[in-house]
Amino acid sequence: MSNAKSLAGRRWLSTLGIVLIVVYCLVPFYWMVASALRQPNDQADNSLFPNPISMDNFEAVFGPGVGFGRNLVNSVVVAGVTTLLTLVIGTFAAYTLARLNFRFKNVAAGIIIATSMFPGISLIVPLLKLFTEIGWINTYQAMVVPSLSFALPLAVWVLATFFRQMPKELEEAAMVDGLTRGQAFRKVILPLAAPGMFTTAIITFIAAWNEFIIALSMVNEKEMKTATVAISQFTGISGFDSPFGTKMAAGVVVTVPLVIVVLIFQRRIIAGLTAGGVK
Fold first, then answer.
1. In a domain, 141, yes or no
2. Does residue 48 fall inside a structural domain?
3. Domain containing residue 115: CATH number
4. Using an 8 Å Cβ cutoff, are 217 and 126 in contact?
5. Which of 149, 208, 225, 259 could form a disulfide with 82 if both were Cys (CB 3.0 to 4.6 A apart)?
């Protein structure tokens, strides 16, 4: 009887802990949505539910002269190109580290991982000077290239672990059948690595989409700013106040698509994170 009570108590505590974590994570997001749906003059209202519900803040975000639509396009371009390049380069680098033997292999792996330990702010000044000299300021590549330096180590680490767990007999059997190593990689390994690559793509896209300090430093033209930078620089009618409701509405526009993508593909993401350990 005591064991049953103890087990029930542990389950109750586990459930309570999960509920508290979920509430802790969702309350800021809910408050952002509620603030976005309040009327601009009701932002000081601390009620849990906006009354009346208003779409004025969302209309202001996409109103004339704001240019937030272009900022969203810039974010899509930067995050998309960063993700694509990270997948292409990271896949080849990870496969090389996982499957091939060459001198200084461990040193190369250590350097790749070590680059992710540098704080982003420490690289901004030298990169800013370099990009100014070569004329890259206010360009997409000025935001994509620095983002690669932070996205690639994570991609290589995840994919290398994934490739390392795959049986080497897969490539050996393919090469016995007449395929070259490159053909075996393309026709046999890549299809099996799809879950890990998908997971890497999602993580990289989210990180590049939310990136702020690089985009803020490398771009000063309004038309080239990403959505995260544009939100931080929203101004009110006077040009000096902070339009809280408009910023919350823009935050909802930027966040909701990512939440939807993660909810839709959560099983694929989990499968990609765990598949390498069971193959």
1. yes
2. no
3. 1.10.3720.10
4. no
5. 208
Domain containing residue 232: 56-275
DSSP string, 38-71: S-GGGTT---SS-SS---HHHHHHTSTTT-HHHH
Question: Which pTM value belongs to this model?
Answer: 0.84
Give the integer Cα–Cα distance in Å for 264 and 244. Answer: 30
* Total tally of structural domains belonging to the chain: 1
Per-residue tokens: 271? 């499968």
Q: Which of 125, 111, 105, 88 is nearest to 213 (CA)?
A: 125
In this structure, what token pair is assigned to residue 6?
């103890």
CA distance 120 to 126: 11
Does residue 220 fall inside a structural domain? yes
Q: How far apart are CA 80 and CA 64, in angstroms?
A: 27
Give me the average pLDDT of each 10-residue run along the chain (279 residues): 67 87 88 88 79 86 84 94 94 88 84 79 86 93 91 87 82 82 84 84 90 91 92 68 81 86 75 56
| Residue 27 DSSP label | H
Give the whole-angstrom CA distance, residue 236 versus residue 79. 28
Contacts 24+ apart (CB under 8 A), 14-19: none
